Amino acid sequence: MATPKLRLLRHDSPSGPTCPAFYDAGEGQLAVVGKIITDPAVLAQMGIADDEMAVMIPESLAPEVKNA
């Protein structure tokens, strides 16, 4: 897979587009930057596969998702 050119869509950091953030990765894909979830009990609830990683973002970054 070629390295996608990311385009910043939204961020919630006063110091610039760092964490948390959403990026358009092209080809119908989004990239999400957030704090890594490491709590095994939380990860078990999510059914995370070995090649996946879960991150936390504040709901204020994507209120439309919670209300969908």
Give the proportion of residues in helices.
10-25%
- What structural class do the secondary elements suggest? alpha+beta
Number of strands: 5
Largest sheet: 3 strands, antiparallel
Instruction: List the total number of helices.
Output: 2
What is the total number of structural domains?
Answer: 1
Strand order of the largest sheet: 1-2-3
Helix and strand sequence: EEEEHEH
Average the pLDDT over all residues and give the rounded result.
Answer: 87
The separation of the N and C termini measures 31 Å
Rg, alpha carbons: 13 Å
Uncertain segments of ≥5 residues (pLDDT<50)?
Answer: none
Strand composition percent: 25-35%
What would you call the shape? Answer: globular
Architecture overview:
With 68 residues, the chain is α+β, with helices and mostly antiparallel strands. The chain has one domain (7-66). It is 16% helix and 29% strand. The chain has two helices and five strands, in the order E-E-E-E-H-E-H. The chain has helices at residues 40-46, 63-66, and strands spanning 7-11, 21-26, 29-33, 35-36, 55-56. The chain has a three-stranded antiparallel beta sheet with strand order 1-2-3, with no helix packed on it. The chain has a two-stranded antiparallel ribbon with strand order 4-5. A hairpin with a 2-residue loop joins strand 2 (21-26) and strand 3. It is globular.
